[in-house]
Each structure stands twice: as C-alpha cells, then as structure tokens.
C-alpha cells in the first residue's frame, strides 16, 4: 500500500481535489476491504467560501475542518445521508475536499448488498459511496494517513486533459461567485 501522507493534504484544496482523482479510497470493516477509484471531487475553500461549512466559523459540527489535514470530516445531511470530506491545507484553515464518486475496485458484492443496487448507481454520488463503503459519523475525525479503517492510496495518475472542471452541485445558497467557481473535478468516464 502506498498510502497518501499528510503532506499530500497540506496543499491548496483545489490542487488536492484534482490530485485525488485516480487515487484509491479504501475502507476496511473487519476482514472485508472495500475500495474504489475516486472519479469526482469538490473543493471547499475555508471561511471565505460561502458554500463551505466553515464559512460562518467554527462549530461542534465542523470542528474537524479546523484540525490537521489528512483527517476525515464526515457529516450527516438531509436527515439521512453521510458525506465524506478530506481535510486539506494547514491546521486552522478550514478547507476540505468532498469525495463525490468512486468506481468500485474491490468488495463490489458487499457494496451492492449495502446499497441494494448495482451498476452505475452503486457509488456515483457522495451519499451513495458512503453507504456502499459503510462510512458514517464514527469516522468523523479519523486520520486517513494511518492506513487502517479508512485511507487513500496512490493508484492511477489521471492526465490533466482527462479532468473536467465544473461548478459544484447543490450549493444554491452560496454567493454567485462561489456557485460559479469551477471547483468540481471529475474524470471523463472513458479515461479511467
């Protein structure tokens, strides 16, 4: 395993969001390993970003974002879904990357069991991938550089020409400049 170290996450959030594409997100539950290639991310850039959870300052919910980079920020939304973010930049600057989608690599049958679905719908959204990988609030604050329970490792390098940058999804409440920012990154499907 070539697990991404803290230095990987200590960079500009948009750089990390792009660099995570092609990496392997892995989750170990007992003896079962579930993993997939990260194919879609979104950057959330601290207190100046009106779409970011930390925009209005530190709260018990978003406190992990203010901590060391390389930790999981897992939150519950709409009363039913978990979302996985990876904290970036320097401690005290609350930035993170939302992992939006993966392509399953290992443990696909277990993911199908957890999702009650198969095919393209298995992990093609942030809540779907959390359900497929068994990611919940118990992993909030987890150090993903440790290499157990939940981690990210080097897998594939995605060339820049194969990466699309678009506005982020579901942030209608944010200021126009942040709604229009091209901070969602995805791999063109035929390039994975």
As residue ranges, the low-confidence spans are: none
State the CATH architecture: Roll
In CATH's first tier, which class applies?
Alpha Beta
Radius of gyration: 15 Å
State the domain count.
1
SSE string: HHEEEEEHHEEHE
What's the helix count? 5
Which assembly state applies to the chains in this document?
A: single chain
Average pLDDT, all residues:
94
Task: Please characterize this protein's 3D structure.
The chain has 192 residues and is an alpha+beta fold. The chain has a single domain (6-191), classed as Methylpurine-DNA glycosylase (MPG) (3-methyladenine DNA Glycosylase, Chain A). Helices cover 17% and strands 30% of the residues. The protein has helices spanning 6-9, 13-19, 108-115, 126-133, 176-180; strands spanning 24-29, 32-45, 72-77, 81-88, 95-106, 150-153, 163-166, 184-187. Strands 1, 2, 3, 4, 5, 6, 7 and 8 form an 8-stranded antiparallel sheet that branches. Strand 4 (81-88) and strand 5 form a beta hairpin. Helix 3 crosses helix 4 (126-133). The two termini are 20 Å apart. The mean pLDDT is 94.
Summary of the model, kept short:
Helices cover 17% and strands 30% of the residues. With 192 residues, the protein is an alpha+beta fold. The protein starts with 5 loop residues before the first helix and ends in a 5-residue tail after the last strand.
List the helices and strands and how they pair.
Elements: H1 6-9, H2 13-19, E1 24-29, E2 32-45, E3 72-77, E4 81-88, E5 95-106, H3 108-115, H4 126-133, E6 150-153, E7 163-166, H5 176-180, E8 184-187
Helix pairs in contact: 3-4
